[in-house]
Amino acid sequence: MKDGKFPRSRGALLADAVGTTAGAVLGTSPTSAYIESSSGVAVGGRTGLTAVTVSLLLGLTLFFSPVIGGLAAVPAITAPVLIIVGFLMISVVSKIDWSDFEVVFPAFLIIVLMPLTYSIATGIGVGFITYPILKAVKGKWREVHPIFYLFAVLFFIQLAFFGH
After folding, report:
1. pLDDT: is 116 or 41 the higher one?
2. Which of 42, 55, 82, 99 shows the greatest Cβ crowding within 10 Å of its Cβ?
3. What is each CA distance from 97 to 26, 112, 142, in whole angstroms?
């Protein structure tokens, strides 16, 4: 940063946006270079050699893909990772307004269903479904942005017809 601004950030942000969009179109998880890049810089990697080394090591992992794919289907292996992710995400729980049932119940379902279903997406999807429903039942449907209703319908379709 120079004087509170990021010089030449347009190219990096554009690359990140294109990568995320292309990943979504191809059906993969969104790709983002921000955390990985900042992690590399934090440990001293400031040249292109760091990126080349990481890409070569990633290329080597492709040979182990069938083994990893088989192991990834075993809940005893994936559950601990999801629990660790949940542990890292739990700090946000202190910011929940615990007096508002319409917020607490969907948040509770998200927190509980992530480890129980072995899927972060399922937990978040159920939260996106229950939040607008609760607001509508309480007569507060106008407080919910229309995009939430769209996401609720899309998540319902995904969970009901295209399960994990």
Report:
1. 116
2. 82
3. 37, 17, 20
CA distance 43 to 39: 7
Q: List Cβ neighbours of 144 (8 Å cut-off, separation of 6 or more).
A: 131, 132, 135, 136
Residues 22-69 have pLDDT tens digits of 877 777 766 666 556 666 777 777 777 887 888 898 888 888 888 878
- Name the residue type at position 76: A
Q: Do residues 159 and 126 lie in contact, with contact meaning Cβ atoms separated by under 8 Å?
A: yes
CA distance 59 to 57: 5
Predicted model pTM: 0.54
pLDDT exceeds cutoff 70 at 164? no
Q: What residue type is 20 in one-letter code?
A: T
Range list of H helices, the chain: 9-25, 34-42, 48-61, 65-72, 75-89, 101-117, 120-137, 146-161
Task: Give the gyration radius of the chain's Cα atoms.
Answer: 20
Q: Are 123 and 114 in contact (CB under 8 A)?
A: yes
How many whole angstroms separate alpha carbon 75 and alpha carbon 141?
38
For residue 44, give both structure tokens.
């001293």
